[in-house]
Amino acid sequence: MIRDALRGRTKRREPKSAELRSLPAPERRPLRVLVMSHMDPRVSRGGAEIAAFQLYEYLKAQPGVTAWFLAAGPGKIGERLGVRLIQPFGPDDYAYVGHGFDHFIHSNSDPEFPPEFITLLRDLKPDVVHLHHYTNFGMEALLQIRRALPNVRIVLTLHEYLAICNHFGQMVKRPSFALCDRASPRDCHKCFPEISEQDFFLRELFMKRFLRLVDHFVSPSQFLIDRYAAWGLPADRLTMIENGMPAREERERPNQQPSFENGLVVGFFGQISKLKGINVLLDAAEMLHAQGVSNVRIDVHGDHSGQPEPFRKDFEARLAKAPPNFSFRGAYENRRVDALMRSVHAVLVPSIWWENSPLVIQEALLNRRPVICSDIGGMAEKVRFGLDGFHFQAGSAFSLANLLRSLANDPQRLLALQQTMAVPPTVNETGAAVLDLYAETLRRTRSETENREMAA
Question: Parallel, antiparallel, or unpaired: how do β-strands 153-157 and 216-219 relate?
C-alpha cells in the first residue's frame, strides 16, 4: 500500500493591528496570509474549520493584513468540469473540489490539483500559509507550497492525532476502544491486522518527511503538544494557542442560574457517538434510577443520524428503554446553544477518547456553566478540578453516577464555581496571538537568512 507512495492559556491583551511595524523600512508592506482548511464551515460545522474561518475573518479585518481562505470540500461545495479550484463564496475565498484521497497516509492522488494550487500560490504570493489541516489537500501540499514559494512561512494547526494514529486520529484501540498511550508499528498492526508492521513504519516516515517542511505548529492544548513532541516533532516549534470564541449578543444578557427546586439538571451537547461517551451517560442514568435517585436529570442535545448503522440501531434500542431521568432532546442549531446551556446546571463531556480542546467546554465556560468531564486528555487540562468543574473516571458510569448524586445533594459546590471559572479567549485575542507568532516566525527566518549570507 504505502510502498507505492514512497504555553498555559492564551495571554489576554488587546490585538495588535500592525505586528510588523518593527520591520526595516524596505520590508514594510502588508502581511499576506493564506488560511487553508480541510472543509468549509459554510457546508461543514466541525471545530477545525470553524476555527480556521474565524482566523481568516479576523485577519481580513486587520489593517496591514491581506488574507485569503482556501477550503477543500469534495462533493459538498460544487464542481466545474476540468477545474479544481473554484470561488463559490467570494473573490478572496477559494474551494478545492478534487476527488479521491488515501486516508492511510493522507495522500492526494489528484493530478490536477498541484498545478492549479501552485499557480494560485504564485499569484497570491503569501508571506504565510497557515493550514488548519492537511486532510483532503494531502501531505504533498506542504511540499508544493515550499516548491512554489521557497521563502514562505508554513504554519500548521494540529487538531487531533491523525498523523500519529490511523484510527481516525483518536488514539483508541480497535475493537475495544481502550485508550492508547503511544503509536508503534507493532501496536498499530494489532489494531489493524490487515496492514503490516512495515507499512506502519513507512507511514510514519512518510508523514514526518512532509511535516519537516512546517516552520511552526500550533495546538489548542498542551496535552496534544506533549503527544506530538513525544512522537518526534521538535518541541521548540510547537506553540499552544487556544481557539477563540466569537461574541454573541445573548451572552451579554443576564445569566440567571436555574433553580435546584426540582433537582440537578445536567446537559450533553454535540455529536452522539460511542467515542463521545453516550453509553456512559445511559449507563449512569440507569444506575441512578435503580438506586432510587430522583433528583438528577440528564438532558441530551445532539444528533446521531450520521453514525454507522449498528451504533444507530443500538442507541435507538437503548433510548426506547431509557429511564425517565434520561431525556433525549434531539438535534439543535448552533445559534441555540447558549439558551440550551443556560437551561441546565452543568454541562457533561463524557468522551472516552483523549479529545484535544472540545468546543463544548469553551461554550459552557462562556455561558458560566461548570463542566463535568472525563479525567483524561484535553478535557482534564481545560477543566480545572474544583475551579471550572469536576472530573470523573473516563468510561466509568459508576464514577459519573456517584459524582452526579453527590452534586445533587450539595448543589452549592456547583454554585461556588461561578467565582473561579475561567473565561475562554475571544477570537480577537486568539487572532492577536497568531499574528504575534507570524511576526516571530518571519523575524526568525530573516535572521537565519542573514546568518547564512554572512557565512557565505
Answer: parallel
Residue 98 one-letter amino acid: G
Which 3 state secondary structure label does DSSP give 9?
Answer: coil
User: For 376-401, what is each residue's pLDDT tens digit?
Assistant: 999 999 999 999 999 999 999 999 99
Model confidence pLDDT, tens digit, residues 439-454: 999 998 776 665 655 6
Contact status, residue 416 vs residue 389, Cβ threshold 8 Å: no
> Count of alpha carbons within 13 Å of 416, Cβ hemisphere only?
9
Cβ-contact 126, 149 below 8 angstroms: yes
CB crowding 115-131: b at 16 or more within 10 Å, else e: ebbbebbeebebbbbbb
Query: In 3-state terms, what secondary structure has residue 416?
Result: helix
The burial of 348, by beta-carbon neighbours within 10 Å (0-12 exposed, 13-18 middle, 19 or more buried), is given as buried
Question: CA 356, CA 338: separation in Å to the nearest integer?
Answer: 22
**278 Cβ contact list (under 8 Å, min separation 6):** 268, 272, 300, 304, 315, 350
List pLDDT tens digits, range 122-137. 999 999 999 999 999 9
- Position of cell 468546543? 359
Q: Which three cell numbers stand for residue 69?
A: 481562505
Q: How far apart are CA 112 and CA 98, in angstroms?
A: 8
pTM for the whole structure: 0.87
CA-closest candidate to residue 64, choices 14, 10, 21? 21
DSSP 3: G
